[in-house]
Design goal:
mainly alpha; two-stranded antiparallel sheet; 3% strand; globular
């Protein structure tokens, strides 16, 4: 069983408490943080394998963030060009890295052991982690949970 101390602290930052804290723990694992497939769950639990860190959850989070932005943009009747400008300024890797840095998420991110796992979290790792956290919230609590996390993190125009 992984140490969930950082996971519980992260819940305070994102203003959402997971019924399954292992889902958030998975969202906080950078690629390479897990040297081998780790079976998450126990007897009676649905097994979950984390072989690629948080990337699977980030794919879901990316889609959820896109949908939230699209639902806010659509009724404005502004152009697709305006949408793309808003999307880049809100959901680009640089924008999501800024969100993660502002919320000091690096305190919670599991990184590979050794020299590569020390120091600042790079842009791709931070933006992927922000997306993964949103994805984890969505999987557990649906769109309302994802919105709660987005609001707590202060993600731009959403």
């Amino acid at each position: 069983m992984p140490d969930l101390t950082k996971t519980y602290r992260c819940e305070e930052t994102i203003n959402y408490t997971f019924n399954d804290p292992l889902l958030l723990w998975e969202a906080l694992q950078a690629d390479g943080a897990i040297s081998a497939a780790l079976l998450l769950g126990g007897l009676g639990a649905t097994p979950r394998y984390s072989q690629s860190g948080n990337r699977r959850l980030a794919i879901i989070g990316d889609s959820v963030l896109d949908l939230l932005l699209e639902l806010k943009w659509y009724p404005t009747w502004t152009s697709l060009r305006a949408y793309n400008t808003i999307r880049i300024s809100t959901l680009s890797n640089a924008a999501l890295q800024a969100v993660g840095n502002r919320n000091r998420l690096e305190r919670y991110i599991g990184r590979p052991a050794g020299p590569d796992g020390l120091g600042r979290v790079d842009q791709k790792t931070m933006s992927t982690t922000v997306e993964a956290i949103v994805g984890a919230a969505y999987l557990e609590g649906g769109m309302d949970a994802a919105k709660t996390v987005v609001e707590a993190l202060g993600i731009g125009a959403i």
